[in-house]
Amino acid sequence: MSEPLRHPDHGSLVRELVDGTRGFHQLPDGIAEGEAAAIRREALGRLSGSHLPDIGHYSFDAETAAQRNVENLVGVAQVPLGIVGPVAVHGEQVDGDVYVPLATTEGALIASTNRGCAALSRSGGARVFVEDVGMTRAPVFQTSGIDETRRFVAWVADHEREIREAAEATSRYLRLTEVKPFVFPTTVFLRFRFDSGDAMGMNMATIACDRVVTDLIEPGTGVRCTALSGNYCVDKKPAAVNFQEGRGKRLFAEAILGEEILERVLKTTAESLAEVQYRKNLLGSIAAGSRGFNAHFANVLAAFFIATGQDLAHVVDGSMGVTFIEPRPERSVYFSVFLPAVPLGAVGGGTGLATQSEALSILGVRADRERPGRAVKRLAEILAATVLAGEMSLMAAFTSRDLASAHERLGRGGPLPEPGSS
Ligand code: ADP
Fold first, then answer.
1. Between 3.90.770.10, 3.40.50.300, 3.20.20.150, 3.50.50.60, what CATH number should domain 81-133+248-410 receive?
2. What's the predicted TM-score (pTM) here?
């Protein structure tokens, strides 16, 4: 735990926070962030009548966290971290065994995913493929009508080179790869797409869009930008445009499991897996109008995101996708997953926090300034394999009707559980 020197005004500042004469964000400048957190925590404890020793028990650097990750710092929310693997992953940036840290409060998720990893590794591993589709941001503009809308879109097309230069001047890691308009009569969305190196890129994209909108597009067209994010980006909402065109990283992973692995490790058969796949992941998702044609991508994504310092809200868009199960000769099965829009970063966001950066180190993910994009691709390849492992195990659990009994065992600390939801 960070334990800075107690500020001379500690007691009076706590009292001011408690009686409301000062807000949590109004502590005087110059107080070390660890001490500021202690003052807020003490006031919060008094205001809520709570004892908060664990919230104050953290090991990340308070100054950095307060600068980059959080305001009104009071401490930490701990989430247990488990490990799965080794899982054999065969991709462009990783070709071999990996151990994957997952942070979760859902008992059974780790055990189940680990079973999937075992099935994968004993079947030759997961073959993975990651496309760096690019981070998107779509400002929205208000025009007077169809004529101005058409002039506006033409102006943007005519000035693409200047727009690109201005956008890319905001970061040496940023490349503008596309500007795609979507128009209504009095409204234009410009969906900017960026390659952002090893960063997830949302902040970088937003800063670049702000620059080109303010310096070029508004003055050049006389058309006003209503919002820098026009919801056609689409960030942190499930959406068809992300599914079809991709956003962030597009992940693929596949494996063929033989009859023996299916029976011994997953306690299932190709035929019953295909039946559950058809009726649950496909028909069930159609009936529900869902874009998650999968069993539980979100479970693995959330645990992976917490462990590695990703933006957790991206589980919403990241967990869209499809699981594929196709029977193959000799009672084997082809199993694959497709995740079209997973925002991921190996630098920036929460990746620099103490435990998150250790988790990235376990995965062998280290950003290299000279080769931006490789580290995040490795991260994405490992995620794809882990999602595949999670899908395999849970789908197998459905075929053996193991899910409910696993829930029961779980709550009571029994052996070999299966994951909870989905
Ligand atoms: P994001 O844009 O992903 O939301 P940040 O706001 O933290 O996240 O921005 C990422 C920062 O990381 C940028 O300032 C960028 O210059 C820096 N950076 C350092 N190394 C790299 C790299 N290898 N690839 C991309 N960005 C990098």
1. 3.90.770.10
2. 0.94
